[in-house]
Each structure stands twice: as C-alpha cells, then as structure tokens.
Amino acid sequence: MRDRIVRKGLCMGCGLCGSVLEQPNAMKVSKEGFYEPDTKEILSANATVRSVCPGISIHGHCGKDVWGQTLDVVEAWSADEQIRHHSSSGGIVTSLAIWMIENRKADAVLHVGVKADDFLHNELQISRSREDVFKNAQSRYAPALTLHRIKQILDTTDESFVFIGKPCDIAGIRNLTKCFPEYKERFRLLISIFCAGIPSYEGSKDVCRQLGREDAPVRIQYRGDGWPGNFKAEWADGDTREMSYNDSWGKILGRKIAFRCKVCPDGIGLLADLAVGDSWNTKDGYPDFNDDKGRSFVMIRTTKGQTIFNEACRTGSVVSRPLDRRQLQSMQPFQYHRRLMAGWRLIPLKMMNPRLLAFSGLGLVSMIKQSPKRRGIREMLGTMKRIIKRG
C-alpha cells in the first residue's frame, strides 16, 4: 500500500506510517528533496496505514462554505511585541501555545523546528517552556518529519499537548486518534497554519544559490523578524545574505512543491480547532507584502478552539478584533481559488485510483458546483497532464 502511495505521488512525507508500525526511523529524503518511506524497511501493505495516511485519507464535516465550518473569524496578533516581531505572522500561534503551557492547559507543544546542528532539515520538536516555543516560532518552508515519532511520544509519556502543523498534519492526527482513541484526549488543541504546499529541500538550496553562494550555510531563516520578513542565510565565515519573501517564496520555493500539494483538498485547516493565516494588507484587491507589524486571521472552527481563544484574549496574551470575512478573498486569493478548484483537480486522480483515495466531508462537490466551470475543466486537464508526466 505505502509503495503505491509513494509511486502515485500521494505521500506527504509526514512519517506517520512508520510511527504506527513502530518503525519511526524508516524515512528517507528522495532525490527530489522530499521525505518518503523507505519501502525496503516498511512492509508494503497494511490496513492501519491506509486509515491513518493523510495523503489518501481525510474526513471532515465542512459544509458548503468555501472557508469551511467556522464559528467566528477574527484578526489577531500577540500582545508581546517581541513575539509579534520575531514570529512569521504576528505571533498569534506562538502566544497561544505559550499561554496554554503557562496556564497548565497543556504540558507541552508539538511543532516543527530545525534539527539540532542542522541548517536545513526539519523535524517534530517538543517544547515545554516559553523559550523553546519561541525558538521554534518561525515558518520552515521545507519538508518536515512532523509525525514520524508521534505514537512513540504518546506511548512513553502521559503529557498532554498543543499540536501545531499544516492541514495535512492535522488530518493525520485526526486519523490517528480515530484509529487509536486512547490518544484523543491527549491533544488539548489542534492549530493549523494555512499552507500553500511543501517546497522540497532543493528549493532552499536554490534560494541560497540565487544569493550567490554554492556552499552550505550554517543557518536559514525563511521569514520573520518583521512581516512577512526576508529569507536569510548565514554562512560560517559570517557572511549573511537576504531575499524578500515575495522573491524567495513567489519565484523559487513556491514552484518546488510536491505533486500531492498541487491536488490538495485542504490548505486551510478544515479539521483544526483553530486555523491561522496571514491577514495581509491588500492593494488593488491583492495581498501587499510591504513590511508591517504582523497580523493573522484566526478561523475558530470548534467550541474547544473558541473557549481557549476567548480566554487567551481575556487574559491579555493575544489581541483580537472583528474581521469581515468578505475580506478573506482579497487577503488570501490563492487559497480561495485553490479551494474552489480542489474537487476539479481531484477528479482525474480519483478516476485513476478509485480504491486508493478516501476523502469525505470536505465539501468538494459543493466547491465544484460553485466554481467557474471553464476554469474547472482547465484545472482538471492540468492534473491529468501532471499524472501522465509522472508516468
């Protein structure tokens, strides 16, 4: 099964399959620069893997709205100016995570950070203090072994967690807790960041080459220290070079995303308690990436998320204000149109793999009905071409 998932380009590289089969180290980086299971070490067929894999299995209850189920949508940022400046998008996720730990709502935070003594590769981190959460606050626009040891962590500790991840990571956690319900109460809050896709590790290397250095840096920062903040790379000789977010993401990293990301049914955290994205300033109806103080919009999707968010606001950890949800389309035009087109893009994939994909409750049929048909057909044909190109 996993071999087929990889061959079809549907693997997310999260490592959840290895974790549930008690082989958390059975992942490798492919020649394209993405994580995938080492199929020589992992058996090729397992019903549990099919159930938990977020690459092929996502189940929600999202209704007919483009933005999914929401109890409220607000604009927010951290009340701590240091966190707000350092973080990628106003520090709302960082402040919520810190608030949860300091108020004993959870014991620790599970989120992505760079490996120790490694400028490039990312993995799941466990943060138990304000300092640790702050250290892992910024975005990492490269693959990450987000779930590769999640079961082992849950089995070796009785701690409760805030989990922060991409929408597909949240889907993986939902699948895991459905298959292993004893873990469900261990996750006190699921926060999803809006995601436009996972760039390969080769993308990060390409940005460094564009900055004029062929040798490996000792540190990479994708954004932050301002909003949106620049891509920054630092070398052992003290040389530091930067590239704007618009150039690094828009011209290089965003063009190096995985095939599965191009047909993603959920880039907006439909299954999370809270989904968070950049509340961009807009100009002529499109996002304006000129530097400013960071702000996020927060989609409050569950009563649990609403209770926690409101309490964090009342105690002064975060600042929020009402947001007219009609502004979301101009703040996030890519995600808006991507969501409308998701069903169209999945039609040829589903036709060619009728027994492999299990997506339900994501409002995909409703999105097809609401979307421009001519554009939808173009998107469908584009997916077919990608599939044929992959062989």
List keywords for this structure.
9-stranded mixed sheet; globular; alpha/beta; 3-stranded antiparallel sheet; 391 residues
Account of the protein in words:
The chain is α/β, with parallel strands linked by helices and 391 residues long. 36% of the residues lie in helices and 20% in strands. The chain is built from 16 helices and 18 strands. Strands 7-6-5-8-9-13-16-4-17 form a nine-stranded mixed β-sheet. A three-stranded antiparallel β-sheet has the order 10-11-12. Strands 1-2 form a two-stranded antiparallel ribbon. Helix 14 (333-352) crosses helix 15 (364-370) and helix 14 packs across helix 16 (373-390). It starts with a helix and ends with a helix. The mean pLDDT is 94.
Backbone structural class:
alpha/beta
Count helical runs: 16
The helical percent reads 25-40%
* Beta-strand share of residues: 15-25%
In round numbers, the mean pLDDT is 94
Oligomer: single chain
Bulk shape:
globular
Number of strands: 18
With strands numbered from the N-terminus, the spatial order across the biggest sheet is 7-6-5-8-9-13-16-4-17
